[in-house]
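help with these tokens:
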Amino acid sequence: MAHDALIIDNLQYANWSPKIFQQMQEGGVSAVHVTIAYHEQFRETVSNIEQWNRYFEAHSDLIFQGFTGDDVRRARREGRTAIYFGFQNPSPMEDDLGLIEVLHRLGGRFMQLSYNNQSLLATGCYEAEDPGITRFGREAIAEMNRVGMVIDMSHSAERSTLEAIEISSRPITITHANPHEWHPALRNKSHEVLNALTQAGGMFGFSLYPHHLKDGSHCTRESFCQAIADAAAKYGARSIGIGSDLCQDQPDSVVTWMRNGKWTRNMDFGEGSASAPGFPPQPNWFEDNRDLPNIAEGLSQVGFSQAEIDGIMGENWLRFYDMSFEPTQSAG
């Protein structure tokens, strides 16, 4: 299936398989930012990269590793999908500032400063108190700015996020979340955060993870696309993209890993839904990568122009990739 619009999904954590790589191609998806670490430390993250190297080798007709924005253009020309690595927690850098550059050279392009909990760098959104960016966090932000690794605050708390926006010399991102005023999930973002993020040139990726959607698995495409339209009216369509948070084919046991890591033996229900600890069903209009073009159609129906739709579906992320992934002049 051919699609005219460039499509970038800036966050997925699927149970990767040839089937999913084929669906990316069928959906016309030129780039995906994939999570390769939640709680893994450096050596465990390297093992995950080794696995991805095997995927790239075995499925080179479908996927390859992306490093720069030009790799998105190459993927589009060749009908393949460029895969960009990201970390949902700073654990891969451990307590060693120098590992940020090493991880960047291995292909890491996004790193969250915290994942729900307090980290060495910043506070997660489930902590009762948010003291903001730590001393180490300030150093990490400066180093990430230097080497060209993007700061992601998707799972971080309010003060920490606002401080990261202010401290960073380069625009940051929230790759996968939704506006809190549309659906008041704890991890969705306030107007103050979204305004500060976009005013500073940052990007906001709308999530399709059902816990973050109004009406959950029953969220309609019209509701989702109208939420994007409402955000675009406030913050500008050029600051918005898609970060679906698609966790396709993952067993429910992976939710335990995502939320608990090694820090607790008790189930952390995250969104406060103790009755539904597993993965909720996706809305029926977005179940896998082949459905990403459905969003473009929905955006048209709520009044976006074709240029705005092209931006939201991929061009905005590509522009952000172009300005974010290269080292600054001071990097040697």
In short: The domain at 7-324 is CATH 3.20.20.140 (TIM Barrel). The chain has eleven helices and nine strands.
